[in-house]
Amino acid sequence: MVDGVLVKYNNVFDMMLDVIISTMEKLGHRQTVVMVTKTGWPTGGGDLISVKEYAKL
């Protein structure tokens, strides 16, 4: 729900972007440009690591 209006999102990305933009607007940053340059998992593409190693991150 956004400002009392039920909103349906088709994917999580759109929802997350809407949350960021609406939060910035509520904080008074209405002219701030939000630019997404990449999406996906934060990885360098190297070898797979164990669950224990992920927990350390």
Automatic annotation (TrEMBL):
What is a GO molecular function of this protein? glucan endo-1,3-beta-D-glucosidase activity
What keywords are annotated for this sequence in UniProt?
Answer: Glycosidase, Hydrolase
EC category: hydrolase
Q: Which GO terms describe its biological process?
A: carbohydrate metabolic process
Q: Which reaction does it catalyse?
A: Hydrolysis of (1->3)-beta-D-glucosidic linkages in (1->3)-beta-D-glucans
The record ties this protein, via InterPro entries, to: GH, Glyco_hydro_17
Q: What is the E.C. number?
A: 3.2.1.39
One Pfam annotation reads Glyco_hydro_17
The UniProt family comment states: Belongs to the glycosyl hydrolase 17 family.
Name under which the protein is recorded: glucan endo-1,3-beta-D-glucosidase
The taxonomy runs: Eukaryota, Viridiplantae, Streptophyta, Embryophyta, Tracheophyta
